[in-house]
Amino acid sequence: MYAIIEDGGRQFKVEEGQELVVDFKEEWEPNTEVTFDKVLMISTEEGARIGQPTVSGAKVTAMVIDHVKGKKLTIRWFRRRKNSRKKVGHRQISTKVKITKIES
């Protein structure tokens, strides 16, 4: 059984027990339960239910594991013949969740 959910403008295919990295949500504390209400599709043994645009009454429950930092990105600006250089680093903060239940 799996579901396709939408969060932060992106779609994720999730199954129970799967760990997922989504956009950072400041109001989500570690070890709390959150629900994803925008369920676009649910696939079960009986068949698939496709929403228009979402499946009514369906939700996916997840447990917040932690807030994590992504891989470091290095940004460089360089203008030739002007002695102008700049180097900046960035690490995106994300939220890691574990899918606990898919309800249809």
Summarize the structure.
This protein has strands at 2-7, 10-15, 19-23, 33-36, 39-43, 48-50, 59-69, 73-79, 84-90, 93-103. The protein is mainly β and 104 residues long.
Relevant terms:
104 residues, mainly beta, four-stranded antiparallel sheet, 62% strand
Give the beta-strand count.
Answer: 10
- The amount of beta strand, in percent, is over 45%
Mean pLDDT across all amino acids: 95
Helix/strand/pairing class, anyone? mainly beta
* Helix percentage range: under 10%
Number of helices: 0
Major sheet, described briefly?
4 strands, antiparallel
H/E element sequence: EEEEEEEEEE
Note the overall shape: elongated
Which stretches of 5+ consecutive residues score pLDDT under 50?
A: none
Give the CA-CA distance, first to last residue.
10 Å
Radius of gyration computed on alpha carbons: 19 Å
Order of strands in the sheet with most strands: 2-1-5-6
Structural overview:
This protein is 0% helix and 62% strand. The strands form 3 sheets. It has a 4-stranded antiparallel beta sheet with strand order 2-1-5-6, with no helix packed on it. The chain has a 4-stranded antiparallel beta sheet with strand order 3-10-7-4, with no helix packed on it. It has a two-stranded antiparallel ribbon with strand order 8-9. Strand 8 and strand 9 form a beta hairpin. It has strands at residues 2-7, 10-15, 19-23, 33-36, 39-43, 48-50, 59-69, 73-79, 84-90, 93-103. The radius of gyration is 19 Å and the shape is elongated. The protein has 104 residues and is mostly beta strands. 15% of the residues are buried.
